[in-house]
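Retro notes, structure queue

What went well: the backlog is down to a handful. What didn't: a couple of records were mislabeled last round, so from now on we paste the full input next to the output in the thread. Example, using DUF416 domain-containing protein from Pseudoalteromonas denitrificans DSM 6059:
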Amino acid sequence: MNKPNNFQRVRELNYMQKAVLAASLLERMLPNYALFSDATEFGDATIFRNALNSIWEKLVFPKSKISLEKLVDKIEPIVPEIDDFDMFGVYPAIDTSTALLSMLNGMMIEDELEFVNISKISQASVAKLIEYQLGSQELSANNEAIRAHPLMKYEIEILSELIDYVENMGRINSDSIKGLKLKALEDGQTNIGIEI
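Corresponding output:
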């Protein structure tokens, strides 16, 4: 499926469908931050994990007493700065942070565009890795090369499968959310192809 179709399909989902799709993409991105945090001893992946667990809870039980603002306050200080780290892993860690903050912001102000952006952030994260890999092999990292790369094709395929799943999910409750989480993680790897 080509790129515009997936994003168009995401835009056509309803508010809750967009939200759970975005959260499932975050499940695939979260380990990237955890690996970076372990490697650099920067930040705290547990805060990210707890925040995403709280997001799922709030989606299933909208009246739950979870302060999204407090979660943002905990996350913001542990977002890495590019200039502080001389390693590629800082980029997916920043992308994960940005996506998580977008998710929280989208829920706070009920802006579903923030949820749509998460699928774009995930794909951009994959594109950055491909550019990095092609660059280190002194190969051209143009749009065509990036789109033709197996990792990008896979990212697009996974997004398409998750959209299919969300479209057919029916009522959003703890059981259907469990199924969606399993679907997001069934291949055992992050959005950039790292085994988890």
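Agreed that this is the format going forward. Reviewer comment attached to the example: The first helix runs from residue 3 to 12.
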